[in-house]
Amino acid sequence: MHIDVIGAGALGMLLAAGLAESGAHVTLWTRTRRQAELIQERGVLRYRLDGCSDVIRIPCRSMGEDAAPAAERCVVLAVKATAIRPELMTQLHAIVGNDALGACAVVCLQNGVGHVETLAAALSSIPIHAAVTTEASRREDERTVRHTGAGEIWLSDRDPFGNAAGDAPIQKKLLQSLEKAGFTSFLSNDINTRIYRKLLANAVINPLTALYCVTNGELPQENCRLTLMRRLYEETAEVLMRSGLLPSEDYWQSILAICEATSGNRSSMLSDVQAGRETEIAFINGAIAAKGRELRMPTPLNDALIAIIQAYRKPLDEDKG
Hints:
CATH architecture of the largest domain: 3-Layer(aba) Sandwich
């Protein structure tokens, strides 16, 4: 099976490097030709969890180029939710190609909710499957990625409408490849629970790290921030539990554990705010606010953070405060 990793950000480079090192047939797809040529020429420089580094050679192409034919193909979509636009759908069709129809799958690793349904509607002939990961990494430049926290990867064995995908052969092969590459991975028949749990954590951690300009580990280390975290958690958890997330007493502790396990990580929302880029706030806290409106539940903290993050831009060289 050929694996196409689309998106050469932190997660895409981390996954592609691990898969390539383990011997998988993988291609990393970049947004720009310059980045593709750089990685093709010099490889991905990866800093492992132990601080040591290595260079992994990965076949790399830029979006818009032709894909090599494959009898069986798994496309791992590692772009941000904000990149799921009509032009990406066209490029996905070009990568998959007619020769692979019936023997392919697209696995989506985006934050938030709503993107899987959007892809399924646009790519009706291609099986689309949700996935969730708690792996943490940071892109340091166009060819350098630092693994900042070990986590898990969960792959759905069902389509976006909850229908079981037979014995999910492509997902199982991807699972085997990920495990061989050193990623702790599982196949799930209840991916929505995983999605909601990650959405809850992202809705609390991401906007607040962006607001306070702190790392994940620093976020709960000050009482005022911790109090706001808790209140945002309570508001968000109430909405998600009314939407189907099973009640549990460990969600709050799980969020604190994520902050500790990824203590040195800068959330993608913080990086986007500092760079003046569009954030995923609409897919994360925006999704919570939308569910709140459907349920007639107020979400004042989520609403406030959406407004602040959408308006807030912080220069890269400004001191933390």
